[in-house]
Amino acid sequence: EANGRSELPGPGACEPEEDGPGKPAEQPPGKASCKKTAQQRHLLRQLFVQTRWPSTQDYDAITAQTGLPRPEVVRWFGDSRYALKNGQLKWYEDYKRGNFPPGLLVIAPGNRELLQDYYGTHKTLREEDLQSLCDQTQMSSQQVKQWFAEKMGEDTRAVADGHGQRGP
């Protein structure tokens, strides 16, 4: 078992974070040297909740999904495991429960229309319809639930703000 040892950061698209003369002292531990987009962080966090110790094949898939260099992904997982072990991973419990920051769920237009139609008819997600919606949209149950939570939150805010008119 490699335990990620053979996948230590090396030369790549991001500068390695090693303790050396070139490393800035003010950089806090656990900060990545590559700037990640909110969507990349979101995807990494979702995958971390599923598996804290990705296999070699998992790392290949993660680098393909995120577009990040492999050494950066390996480093991020290592830093996240360390932070979780030391109680410093603030987002972990929320992600474990499926509570994601709003606006990070990317949905294909056809799927959005299907979900909108269902929401327009039922105004809520019925548990008995969840699997059918997952099959139709190719989304996970967690993603479907998140979409409904965000949608219901938008409508609640609109009513509270006095903008209860329905648009197209």
UniProtKB/TrEMBL annotation:
Subcellular location(s) of the protein: Nucleus
GO terms under cellular component: nucleus
InterPro entries referenced in this protein's UniProt entry, alphabetically: HD, Homeodomain-like_sf, Homez_homeobox_dom
DNA-binding positions: 39-88
Nucleus keyword on record: yes
SMART domains for this protein: HOX
Keyword annotations of the record: DNA-binding, Homeobox, Nucleus, Phosphoprotein, Repeat, Transcription, Transcription regulation
Gene Ontology molecular function, alphabetical: DNA binding; DNA-binding transcription factor activity, RNA polymerase II-specific
Coarse class of the protein's main subcellular location: nucleus
Annotated Pfam families: Homeodomain, Homez
Segments of this protein annotated with the region Disordered: 1-37
Domain Homeobox: 37-87
Name listed for the protein in its UniProt record: Zinc fingers and homeoboxes 3
Organism: Mustela putorius furo (European domestic ferret)
High-level lineage: Eukaryota, Metazoa, Chordata, Craniata, Vertebrata
